[in-house]
Amino acid sequence: MKTAIFCLFLFIQVFSYGQISIDKSQAGEFYLIREAYYIKDDSTYNINENFIDKTTGIALIPFNDSTIISIDHGGIDNVLFIGYGKKIKNPGFDVSRDDAEFYLWSFIEPNNSERQKAYILKEYVTGSFEHRGVNFYYFNIRFADNSQYQFYASVIKYDPTKKKSK
Questions:
Q1: HSE (CB half, 13 Å, CA atoms) of 92?
Q2: How many angstroms separate the CA atoms of 162 and 166, rounded?
């Protein structure tokens, strides 16, 4: 009897979620990290082995009046940081382009339930390989303790309206 009730609830849940339409126009932006650095106390560390070897990406997904921002190793199962960001004016980053974007990011880490805040700079890298179809962006994530991640990442072309070919 318990199994039948469980199956009934499972069927209802799957059926009801299957009826939700997804706004595919707001799929978001996805970036693959190509270079990674960590800066703390005037020392810079190359951390490519932690981010390049594990295929790490950055996702910026619009949601209502904010943006969901996550950094993960290959998908939702291996999230390093996830939270929401609000676009803000430049909080003090040195930039080379007027179209740079700035976020105040409120995030959590999987093993730490304490909410943290950081500033994020996203800036297009002028002179990247547009002629080869590759666009690079520079991300600077500045934490409350003044440590920071610096990432160079390329845009991942993703169209959720297209089906995967077998």
A1: 5
A2: 12
Q: What is the number of other CB atoms lying within 10 angstroms of the CB of residue 54? A: 13
User: pLDDT per residue over 72-99, tens digit each?
Assistant: 987 667 888 999 999 999 999 999 999 9
Phi/psi for 94 (5° steps) reads -85, 125
* pLDDT band with cut points at 50, 70 and 90 for residue 14: very low
**Could you give the CA distance from residue 151 to residue 129 in angstroms, rounded to a whole number?**
17
Under DSSP, the state recorded for 50 is: H
Whole-model pTM?
0.77
User: How do the domains of the chain map onto residue ranges?
Assistant: 45-135
Rounded Cα gap, residues 82 and 72, in angstroms:
8
Which tokens is 129 given? 């390989």
